[in-house]
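Re: the 516-residue chain
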Amino acid sequence: MKLQGEKQEGSEGSEGAKGKTTLSLTLVALISAFGSSFQYGYNVSVINSPAPYMQDFYNRTYLDRTGVPMDSSFQTLLWSLTVSMYPLGGLFGSLMVWPLVNNCGRKGTLLINNLFSIAAAILMGTSELAKTFEVIILSRFIMGIFAGLASNVVPMFLGEMSPKNLRGAIGVVPQLFITIGILVAQILGLSSILGNAKGWPVLLGLTGIPSLIQLLALPFFPESPRYLLIQKGNEEQARRALQRLRGWEDVDEEIEEMYQEDRSEKEEGQFSVLSLCTFRGLRWQLISIIVMMMGQQLSGVNAVFYYADRIFESAGVDSSSIQYVTVSIGAINVVMTLLAVFIVESLGRRILLLAGFVLCSASCAVLTLALNLQSTVSWMSYLSIACVIVYIIGHAIGPSPIPAVMITEMFLQSSRPAAFMVGGSVHWLSNFTVGLVFLYMEAGLGPYSFLIFCAICLATMVYIFFIVPETKNKTFMEINRIMAKRNKVEMQESKELKDAFPHGKQEEKKVLSSSE
């Protein structure tokens, strides 16, 4: 019987995994993550290694123009702008998510976004030849816009394309490529490779290559089936896209689920950010993504990376070897995020989030103790190193990859773009805030600043424990029903289904089969 066959295949079992679906889905995940998410990570750490050479270039250029050396405070200001323009651009990119994904589609937005990256790469790569440091600062802002869009659109695009039993694993792939981007930038930034006086313009310019590959390859893959059906009303294209992604012809069950989602949302229409913030039916979802995104960025991950060099130096690691130690930390980050890809579907989202925040809060607390005692107790510096590694493992399995997966899962099609816009804005604002405030915190509190991060990790963990549901292996509609109970609202779906299909499921099947 057709419907039973659908259920066996449509539940995305092992047969589907072996078929064409996995190839199409794998390729689209790899191309979109490499072309977009990889560059987000790459540009986070690309300016760390060549910083002295870039600052020297700023100084020389200023001297050539004015005849006087650059004032040290002005140089500090220019470098602060170079660093902070990236998260500021990320915030602007996040604010562009809602209009772009609704008007151009998910795939269309990713293709348009590549133009930002390619333009910025050309400007940064030629900045030394053109003898202008201003374009580097401008390009960092443009790359930030690219990263702001990429960090939101890729998880949305892949989440909407994935079958429910692979949605978590595929949703972690963008974060995996962010960590790979960070690692590649660290490796290429070694002084023996490109992190030197001659190589840094090439190091900055390389970021355009993944975008060029994505621009050439992504057009050959389908748009998000949910976008095609629910927002564009084109069932035929959605069906074709699903058949290609799943590797089998019979996709009625998923099409039906999309129609169900569409009907349950008909009354609200497309959500803007304002209507999302005031709509009672999505109150707890919205609070949850804000808490998770703030917890992710304010948990001190950037501070731990910042402190790592000094921690290793105090443990007796030779200063010339510290860059290799930094690369090894980047490698641990990649390996643990890769592990998250494989365990997120078996253990679930909640467990990984809770375990991750527990590890982060514990290591922050012990790190505070170890940093305070390392001048008196010799072995405390090794405990500090252990804390850094445990922290990075904890962050990589939960707080880093899972929040973006949860945004995809906790919102339906009409509210998802606005939700990503809010989540992305909170992400980049928090990132910007930590970058701005941490140096002052460190100057005022020293190692005790990690106690603040410990408290934030604990608070986020408590919230997740009591409020955030497990979404593993559930359809978007099932998750929406769970959250509707928490929001104390009645779902529109049941009443609308009765109105639309007075003769029940049979009538619904007829509509679906006639539209084939």
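The chain has a mean pLDDT of 87.
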